[in-house]
Structures are given as structure tokens and as C-alpha cells.
Amino acid sequence: MKKLFSILVLLTLITGVLTGCGKKDETTDPAADQTQDQTGDQKGEDQTETELTKIVVGASTTPHAEILEQAKEALKAAGYELEIVEYVDYVQPNLALQSGDLDANYFQHLPYLDQFNEENKTDLISAGIIHYEPYGLYPGKTATVDALEDGAQIAVPNDASNEARALLLLEAEGLITLKEGAGINATKNDIAENPKNLDIVEIEAAQLARSLADVDMAVINGNYAIEAGLNVAKDAIATESKDSVAADTYGNIIAVKKGDETREEIKALLEALQSDTVKKFIEDTYEGAVVPKF
Description:
Elements: H1 2-26, H2 30-49, E1 53-60, H3 61-69, H4 72-77, E2 80-87, H5 92-99, E3 104-109, H6 110-120, E4 124-132, E5 136-139, E6 153-157, H7 160-172, E7 177-178, E8 191-193, E9 199-203, H8 208-211, E10 217-220, H9 222-227, H10 232-235, E11 238-239, H11 245-249, E12 251-257, H12 264-273, H13 276-286, E13 291-292
Parallel strand pairs: 1-2, 1-3, 6-9, 6-10
Antiparallel strand pairs: 3-12, 4-12, 4-13, 5-10, 5-11, 7-8
């Protein structure tokens, strides 16, 4: 009987010990909870600190998208993520900007933008000038201006603002004379004198470099010349002078919808682009084919 009683007491003690151990394992350590909460809070703070505001900018591939790439780090440090959308024409980036798909675009000069607004009833403005691309007269079938024969073909951009710029360059080279006052609104109909009876061929700007082999010469937009491997300082027969009307008029701009020029994102974008870092990149990379305007 005593033996049985001793066994029951022993079993009771063992059960109590095991139960106590189980409760201890399930007990939450307040210090551990506090550490976990602090870690979680810290992670949340870190995630908040790294959240960036996105800026979507449309651009021609060369040189505009390449220049924009140089502004990414400065924008990231300022709290912005730059997304670059590349275009191969001069129409879609303005339509995308007007529709709100873009925050800004970077590919055009102000005369072209003004013309686009008038023709398409858009409301886009310049937020600031970044660079200037000198136009060049490039040789095709004919190597020099003096060698041009009567009736030779010279290709120019077919949009009004860029055609005027090309005609002004041809006038500066003594190939044609424009009507007085035609200026930056000139078209081939404003040619008053054409001693060599040059055939001025209007071609879409993006196709000029590809058409070079089919004409005697072509006046090519700076960005499309660069894309085709041409450098205005090395390959062009003639270029716009630094003190020309074109140099002061045709700076490439950051375009935005009217009213957006005061947005902090746009101010940050301009600041990043108009920096010493970007200026040095432009000067070192394009060797005169792209000229900073800041």
C-alpha cells in the first residue's frame, strides 16, 4: 500500500514539472517582443525613406535620352526616379505629354513647339533650355559647295520651323537668297534668288541622313546626324555660326503642360540637367555637335 502511494506521489511530481516546463516555453519574452517591434518599425522607416517619386520624360534617343541618363543619380539623391521613354518621331512625344502619359519631354526647340501647339490645339510650354544642336550641311553625291551643278538636289526637313532653319543656313552659304523678313518662318516659297536652280527637296527630318546618298547634299538636324554617326564639327561642309539667329532661337527645351512648370518634380529635373556634371558630359561626349545653353 505504501509502495503504491509512493508511486502516485512520484507521478504527480513528474506531471507538475513537465507542465511547468511547457508553460515556460510558451511564455512570450517582453524584451524579445520589444526588439522585434523596433526592428519592424525600422524596416518600415527604411522603406519609406527609399520610396521615390517617379518622373516620366519622353525623349529622342540621341542625344536627349543619353543626356537624361546623366541626371538620374542627382534626381535619385533628391528623391525622384527618372523613367525615360524614347521616341523616333517629333509628334508622339508631344501628344503623350498633352494626354498626361508623360510629365515632360525633351527633344524639340521652342519654334517647333509653338508650331505644334497652333496646329494641334495643345497647351505645352517650355520649362527651360538645356542645349543647342548646330545644323550642318552634309555632302551626299557632291563633296563641296563649289562643285554643285545647276539643278542639284539639296534635302531639308519638311516641318516648317526646321525647314526655315535649313534655308537660313543655305542662305548663309550664298546658295540662295530669301525674301526680306522671311526669317525663321521661311519656306522654299520664300526663296527670292536661286542662282544654281537648286532643287530643294523636303524630307521628314528622321529620314534625312538615310537619304543622303540619294541627293547632292542635305541639311540635317543635329540629333539625327549624331544617330547616323555624323559629327557636325567634323563631317559637315557648313554649320550654323554660334552668333546666328538659329543659335539663339533653337535651343532644345524641357517641355511641359502649361502650369506644370512650377511642380517640384520639374524644378528638380531642370536642376539636375543644368548641372556641371551634365555640362561636362555634353562637352566631352559630343565634341561640339551638342552645345550646353546653361
